[in-house]
Amino acid sequence: MVIKIDNKFVINKEFLRKDFLHKKNIQNRNHFFQKYTKNEQSNTRTTWYEHMEHIKAHIILFDYLLIYINKKINDKNIYMNQLLMTKSLRQFIHHHQKNFT
Fold first, then answer.
1. Domain coordinates of the chain in residue numbers?
2. Choosing a second label site near 63 at 20 to 30 A (CA), which of 28, 70, 79, 97?
3. pLDDT tens, 46-78?
4. CA–CA distance from 2 to each of 5, 56, 79, 87 (Å)?
């Protein structure tokens, strides 16, 4: 069974802004502004909004940042592993080609 919801998802920016400005987030907020340039802040906000629209759910910014950072780290690790495997495979083939010729 499929339930189709025709209502368009709308980001509740006021709710998210209140959470962002809440006193519990002072340290996170300061870190965010110190770590990221204005351009990076804007790009982060854009990808955050796009992600919420894609999943049709609200995510607190600082929760999203943890997900986003972990994904970037995982993607980098996967890429590095692929490079290492490719290099190791080339070395293995090169070494064994000498034995067969």
1. 13-100
2. 79
3. 999 999 998 899 999 999 998 877 666 666 666
4. 10, 16, 37, 47
Q: Provide the CB-side half-sphere exposure for 79 (13 A, CA).
A: 6
CA 49 – CA 26 distance, rounded (Å): 22
Question: Both tokens of residue 48?
Answer: 């955050």
* pTM attached to this predicted model: 0.63
Dihedral angle computed from the Cα positions of residues 70, 73, 78 and 84, in that order, rounded to the nearest 10 degrees: -160
Beta carbons within 8 Å of 38's beta carbon, 6+ residues apart: none
Mutual angle of helices 61-100 and 26-35, in 10-degree steps: 50
